Amino acid sequence: MNKLERQNIILHEASIHNRVLLNDLSTLLNVSVDTVRRDIIELDKKEKIIRVHGGAQAIGFQPYTYDTQAVYSHDEKAIIAKKALEIITPNSVSLISGGTSNLELARLIPNNLNATFFTPSLPIAMQLIECEGLEVIFLGGRLSKESQIALGGNVIHTLAKIKFDNCFLGTSYLDVEYGLSEFDWEVVQLKKAMIASSKNIVSLSISEKLGTQQRYKICDIETINTLVTELDPKEAQLEIYKNKGIQLL
């Protein structure tokens, strides 16, 4: 595999999952970590990717300069967001994590909808406050510089005191056998707390993420109540999720 092929794979993986790790890319590409690091440095200099500690982040995931043209699979994520809107009812209290699919959902919420949203994601909070009818509560804590999500004990402690109608989970890795997973241990603990505090767990995921997994497990697939993808719910690819008792949108 030559350098161009390696770098195209790196860009693709970052686009799908927003963030990728050096070690994971090294295993995927069957090259040394130093080789991957050099590729990322080069891609960063070309402004095709953002180099972060331990890996890289997609250009499209820049919360303060959200550009639909730069967001990977934006059209698919817009379809997902429109479907997820059906779940939000007037006067409901919902919890929403970070990610570009959730950010798209936040962008599409009608200005006159009366509802309450809690979020540990600073970009999501900034988008939600544009809606006049919403009450927006930011779950504060130590902010991750890469994802602008509040992490740590303060957030988890607050979540334990509330019961939410819906939890909209941004999904990085989802596998029918392994369940939901992440590479960041602190994000895993946050999402576990979000799930434990919510009645209805909604996973928003482009179909390319289905069948993927990471080292740290969040929950079994059966924990998810609703899976929202850009696909028609009758697609054969989704049958295995339906068989697990998951509602498909």
Keywords:
Arc Repressor Mutant, subunit A; 2 domains; alpha/beta; globular; 249 residues; 3-stranded antiparallel beta sheet; 7-stranded parallel beta sheet
What does this structure look like?
The mean pLDDT is 88. This protein has two domains: 3-59, Orthogonal Bundle (Arc Repressor Mutant, subunit A), CATH 1.10.10; 74-248, Rossmann fold. It is built from nine helices and 15 strands. The longest helix is centred in the first third of the chain and has 15 residues, at 3-17. The chain is α/β, with parallel strands linked by helices and 249 residues long. The N and C termini lie far apart (39 Å). Helices cover 35% and strands 24% of the residues. It has a seven-stranded parallel beta sheet with strand order 6-5-4-9-12-14-15, with helices on both faces.
The secondary structure category is alpha/beta
> Considering DSSP H and I runs of 4 or more, what fraction of the residues is helical?
25-40%
Multimeric organization? single chain
Strand content: 15-25%
Q: Order of strands across the widest beta sheet?
A: 6-5-4-9-12-14-15
Question: CATH class of the largest domain, please?
Answer: Alpha Beta
Uncertain runs are none
Question: Strand-and-helix sequence, N→C?
Answer: HEHHEEHEHEHEEEHEEEHEEEHE
Spatial shape: globular
